[in-house]
Amino acid sequence: MAALLIPRRNRGMRTRLGCLSHKSDSYNDFTAILPDKPNRALKRLSTEEATRWADSFDVLLSHKYGLAAFRAFLKTEFSEENLEFWLACEDFKKTRSAAKLASKAQRIFEEFIDVQAPREVNIDFQTRELTRRNVQEPSLSCFDQAQGKVHSL
């Protein structure tokens, strides 16, 4: 899953994250890509940690500043809905209540999958229709194929 949403061959994100390794022991000017003010924890962010983001998508998403940096990058590419969809699906998979499962599935479908959805992700017709059927009887895996298509972007 290291290439999630942005393939390893995509030089744009790797270059932006890789530039961190050219700095000294820490990257002190994250202010251009982060929405909030830098704090001491950010100033202690090592280049090694930031460089690991370019190698592991899981590490990138699990780090507060890595997630913020990736979100900022996707905004510049006009594709932040891909990350938001991915995160919504990951949260959906943690749902344990059958009652909540159906309502969450419907909300995700209406927000990201349905034609003309406010934050529609780019998937093919077959995947959209399969997901539509899956949402009618939702399971924790009902968005897996759509997530796979977003991953391949």
TrEMBL record:
Membrane topology, as annotated, equals: Peripheral membrane protein
The lineage's top-level taxon is: Eukaryota
Q: Which Pfam families match?
A: RGS
- Where mainly found? membrane
Q: SMART domains, from UniProt?
A: RGS
Biological process (GO) annotations held by this record are: negative regulation of signal transduction
Report the subcellular localization: Cell membrane; Cell projection, Dendrite; Nucleus; Perikaryon
Record key words, sorted? Cell membrane, Cell projection, Membrane, Nucleus, Signal transduction inhibitor
- Per its record, how is this protein called by name? Regulator of G-protein signaling 8
